[in-house]
Amino acid sequence: MNSTTEVPVPLAASLPAPVPLPAPLRIAVIVGSNREGRFGPVVAEWLLGRIRDRTDLAVDVVDTADVHLPTALSHSPSAEVAAELGKVTPHLAAADAFVVLTPEYNHSFPASLKTLIDWHFHEWRAKPVAFVSYGGLSGGLRAVEQLRQVFAELHSVTVRDTVSFHNAGASFDDQGRHKDPSAPDAAAKVMLDQLAWWGLALREAKSVRPYGG
């Protein structure tokens, strides 16, 4: 009767190789209002706090109040306009995904936001967009619904869930802290989870096959 000797396999050799974690998604938060006395910075700081709590997201801010783009579009912008584009275009191009923060003006979104969007095209393509809105009774939701149509034309994917602040001015204290953060914090998590899923999925897909839509 023959006997065999079993050679022990090292434990490390029997375990699968660890899967490296993906690099954090680069999120550009776009502050859509440049109106005098705007409430946007208060909401933006709240949002940035939610994003910075996550290790899977790296945040950048594009504020329409910091750039002065004309509403008259041009294929050959002047040196002055090119300088203004230089303040924002690289940030949009580098982003994997966007969160657009918008108020509602006259049942729509601000002209400053539309101008920023219209001066760009390739920077939006095949990237996901989420929305945080604020306003009166509607909470800016009518502005968001119109923005969904705009970004669909630009080959962007808008995520389903939003964060909306109704009567926003009364929701925050004088230090910019939300008075009852449990509901908006939960809504932000859902929205950012969806944005992260789409952002990672589209980033990986484009690394294999460039988007040609």
Automatic annotation (TrEMBL):
Pfam families reported in the protein's UniProt record: FMN_red
| Coiled-coil regions, chain positions | none
**What is the protein name stated in its UniProt record?**
NAD(P)H-dependent oxidoreductase
Q: Out of the domains of life, which is the source?
A: Bacteria
Identify the InterPro entries for this entry: Flavoprotein-like_sf, FMN_Rdtase-like_dom, NAD(P)H-dep_reductase
Q: Where is the NADPH-dependent FMN reductase-like domain?
A: 26-168
State the organism named in the record. Streptomyces phaeochromogenes
